[in-house]
Amino acid sequence: MLSRTLLALVAGVTLSLAFEPVAAPVVLPFAVAAFFVCARGLRARQGWWVGLAFGVGFYFVHIWWMRAVATAAWVGLAGVEALFYGLLGAVVAVLGTRRWWPLWVAAAWVSVEVWRSGWPFSGMPWGRLAFATVDTPVAASLPYVGMVGVSALLALAGALLAWLAVARGRERRFALGSVAALVVVLAVPAIASYDPEEVGSTTVAVVQGDVPGPGNDILYDADGVTENHVRATVGLAADVAAGDQPQPDFVLWPENSTASDPFRRQVIGDGIREAAAAIGVPVLVGAIVDAGEDHVLNQGIVWDPVTGAGERYTKRHPVPYGEYIPFRQYIDANFGELARIGRDMLSGTRKEPITVAGVPVVDAICFDIAYDDGLQAQLTRGGQLLAVQTSNATFIETDQIDQQFAITRLRAIEAGRWLVVASTNGVSGVVAPDGSVVATPDPRTTAVLVEEVGLVDAVTPGIRVGPWVARLCILVTLAGLLYSLLAYRRQRRRSRVVVPGPPGPELQETKQE
């Protein structure tokens, strides 16, 4: 048991190497396979400890960057996520005894991944298997089966490798054939890559204004952040007038380009109006907007040079204990880093894309890019272009910015759309539908990217089937657990049946009398 637990811990650390900054995705199926081998054949309670060790090894390394917020935040979040892998270990221990167990345990992996990505408090999607596939042939499957589908294929790859490791005789040959078949399935999309048909184009200017001071605190000089984006946009307007840059159709500013309400602070509102008037096209502004005395909204606001503020997208997934405090009424909100969160951020519910310069734009603010729901809703309702507004200043000296940019690139592939991302000081960029980076500035610089991007109407199969893959995996997992429970109860019932034997000595004596 101890050796299995230690091996699971090493497998978890190995899985973290599939993601940035190492980005060695080749280790992914082997790390997952090692986890399945460690948990299989144990009792559920033992599987729990093996899974917990795996989760600790994986998640504490994977989100090492969370220490930029606070060590307590890193330990707390990684610890909670590790518990999910503990539960997964218990489930694998149960389902691993069933026939066709690689299918059962792969479905269980996806079920837990989907669960922890949305719960509690919106969950934490970081560490999904699909997020490690950027710049790999596997990413070509994203437009066909979506993020959940790719995670399912990778989990199945790990399960089949585990089967190959433990199988013997003819079963081993069958396992090897199954691995080969899965490789062929993954190779097909890479050969016949998804090729979206463009229905038009638009020219977008992405502004990265930079953050004054140390660069890792958006509130160090919040007004200076806004001023940087105003000056960069006004400078772009001068370059357009001089013929050095093409005229954009709209301008994209990042999240927290205004960290205070532009409708209440005149200096902020005046700056936005100055920038929009100078460039003469709408600016999609990232703003913190008051929502009463106790709440705020994190919004993308379409600011027209003539009519002013128009359509808005509100961040769907604020960060718990970072942008709002759950159960604030029951805890001391003035303790440590929590004291910085004076008001709770409310969640957005918008499902339709926002219209910017006549283009239906799918907006995502910061961590929203890692969640499926908001993107799927806007894409299926006509979104033609992906736009990401992010700050990331808190994590500018960490690997978080590279992990998020990898997720962002994968979203472009999954959606079959061009994608533009504006960050306050990195990583900003323009990404093509195949995930290639067309343009990106250096972090911690003031820069403006002006690029013509294509517009796409068609919704990829992966966007449509992704939610159904998740539901199917959950249904399969629950069915497997129910079947295992019924089998266990039948076995217990049989063990209680007393088989009659020969009569004892006392009974024989009675018969003789």
Please supply descriptive tags for the structure shown above:
2 domains, 13 helices, 15% strand, six-stranded mixed β-sheet, Nitrilase/N-carbamoyl-D-aminoacid amidohydrolase, disordered C terminus, 513 residues, alpha/beta, seven-stranded mixed β-sheet
Name given to the CATH architecture of the largest domain: 4-Layer Sandwich
CATH fold-level assignment of the largest domain: Nitrilase/N-carbamoyl-D-aminoacid amidohydrolase
> How many extended strands?
13
Number of domains: 2
In whole angstroms, how far apart are the ends? Answer: 58 Å
The averaged pLDDT comes out at 94
Task: Tell me what you see in this structure.
The protein has 513 residues and is of the alpha/beta class. It has two domains: 2-194 and 464-494; 198-459, Nitrilase/N-carbamoyl-D-aminoacid amidohydrolase (4-Layer Sandwich), CATH 3.60.110.10. It has helices spanning 2-16, 28-39, 44-62, 71-95, 101-116, 142-166, 170-191, 222-241, 266-279, 373-379, 400-415, 461-495, 505-512, and strands at residues 198-208, 250-252, 283-290, 295-304, 308-314, 344-345, 354-356, 359-365, 385-390, 419-423, 429-431, 437-439, 447-456. The strands form two sheets. Strands 1, 2, 3, 4, 5, 6 and 13 form a seven-stranded mixed beta sheet that branches. A six-stranded mixed beta sheet has the order 7-8-9-10-11-12, covered by helices on one side. A hairpin with a 5-residue loop joins β11 and β12. α4 (71-95) runs antiparallel to α5. The protein is globular. The termini are far apart. Mean pLDDT is 94; it is low at 505-513.
